[in-house]
Amino acid sequence: MAGEPLRLLEGIPFTVKDIVNTKDVRTTFGAIPYKDNVPDHDAVAVARLRAAGAILIGKTTTPEFGTKCLTDSPLFGRTRNAWSREHSSGGSSGGAAVAVASGIAPLAVATDGGGSTRIPAACNGVVGLKQSNGVIPHSQVADAFGNQTYVTPTTRTVADTALMMQVMAGEDASDPWSIGVPARDFVAEASPVGDLSGKRILFCLAPPGRKVSADVAAAFSASLTTLEALGAELEEMPGDDFDVEPIWRAINHTAWRTRFEKLAAEHRDELSDTFLKQLALAQRISGVDYQHAMFDRTMLFRRVQALLERADFLVMPTILRTALPIKQDLFGTIEIDGEVFDHVRPNWFPWTMPFNMTGHPAVSMPCGFGTDGLPIGLQLVGQFRGDAELLRACAVFERAQNSLDRWPDTVLPSSIM
After folding, report:
1. Which one of 17, 68, 130, 199 is the catalytic residue?
2. Whose CA is closest to 83, among 68, 69, 103, 60?
């Protein structure tokens, strides 16, 4: 209207997870002690979206400091699944995924420290990318050098994810891993041109000893058939040494204790029991335990690198059953096709945590629905810094799936915002 050139995201609405800084807009981290926190600056990713013309329309719910795979906040309540009010949206970026799935905004800024973008993407039937380490600068992370958390895009389509990447990616002085990362034309390079001929894919249903629901197993098998029909060469890989939740927990709980122990001492009555229990668990982890976990992280990176020396992509289910009940307790049991297991993380999303630690790009793609009517996600993992190539493969798969015309029936309560 002003006669100026249109920017890439001119007038496009977007949301930001309430753990990512937004200038002059309340950022609570889902925690009562921060209920009145108003940053004086944007996170780098947010600033870039605004500079491209996008319009921030709201913050989306996160559990306290994004520390669990379910989205409920002492400030804003539970975020329900876009497809079922009786089920969780996943977490910790559940608000972001539901905002996209239910049509509130086409673009959402999320975060991912162990699956926090991909888990809710799978639960709500949207595209959730955890990009390679450094591709999108993380200007808020306390330990930039040991970082395994990411500021991420969540969208309904691969094309929209590429659009967000086009704007959000690029080096920034705040993030050492971003420096020197080459610029990519994600919009052009991630278009669904051609098929997957010549591409080699290693796949695995689950790490040894982990149960997969019949619905997820069927959707996974159908997805492999689709990938093969697109020309990809498939080979099954062993899932040994991928059940890494103890390593992930040692690193993350230690970081959380270091960051939040003083806060917990001063505001114990304002913080949830689940959050406090996770901090307490970190007291059992010694400095030697932490360093062993970091050594194991390096070994895991080298294992994934070795696999990707003979393949273009790895493929596995994002989560091993559809969304959990709305009142699920992080420290409660998890039920999969009638069997009950004691721990949620290793039995629900063993496949997401490894790639936070290795830094490889991993994306959850919608790949069907269970008999309960809930979405199912397929995770594809690409070469380190091969984000554009991974997105192109996802775009080709998305086109073959032809699932974009299906929307949830429910309009959710305002607790997601």
Report:
1. 17
2. 103
Choose the catalytic residue: 88, 116, 132, 364. Answer: 116
Type and span of the H or E element at 301: helix 287-308
Considering the candidates 73, 84, 92, 139, report the single residue annotated as catalytic. 92
Helix axes 387-401, 158-168, angle to 10 degrees: 160
Phi-psi region of 373 (alpha: psi -120 to 50; beta: other; left: phi over 0): left
Q: How far apart are CA 298 and CA 182, in angstroms?
A: 24
What CA–CA distances, in Å, run from 400 to 69, 226, 371, 372, 394? 30, 7, 22, 23, 10
Rounded CA gap, 323 and 417, in Å? 20
Element (H, E) at 313: strand 313-317
Clarify whether 197 is annotated catalytic: no
Whether 35 is a known active-site residue: answer no
What percentage of residues in the chain have a pLDDT greater than 90? 94
Q: For 327-383, how does the pLDDT look when each residue is reduced to its tens digit (9 = 90+)?
A: 999 999 999 999 999 999 999 999 999 999 999 999 999 999 999 999 999 999 999
Residue pair 128/154 in contact by the 8 Å Cβ criterion: yes
By the 8 A CB rule, do 256 and 262 touch? no
Q: How far apart are the first and last CA of the chain?
A: 30
What domains, with CATH codes, occur in the chain?
A: 13-416 (3.90.1300.10)
What's the residue count for the chain?
417
Q: Between β-strands 339-341 and 334-336, what pairing exists: parallel, antiparallel or unpaired?
A: antiparallel
| Whether residue 414 has pLDDT greater than 80 | no
- Cis peptide preceding 364, ω within 30 of 0: no
The one-letter code for the residue type at 1 is: M
pLDDT digits (tens, 9 = 90+) for 141-171: 999 999 999 999 999 999 999 999 999 999 9
- Which residue from 150, 78, 163, 74 is spatially nearest to 116, judged by alpha carbons? 150
Is-catalytic flag, 116? yes
Residue 417 has pLDDT above 50, yes or no: no
| Interval 93-142: pLDDT, tens | 999 999 999 999 999 999 999 999 999 999 999 999 999 999 999 999 99
Gap between the Cα atoms of 81 and 412, Å rounded: 8
Residue type for 364, please?
A: S
Give the Cα separation of 68 and 74 in Å (integer): 13
Question: Distance from CA of residue 296 to its chain's centroid?
Answer: 22
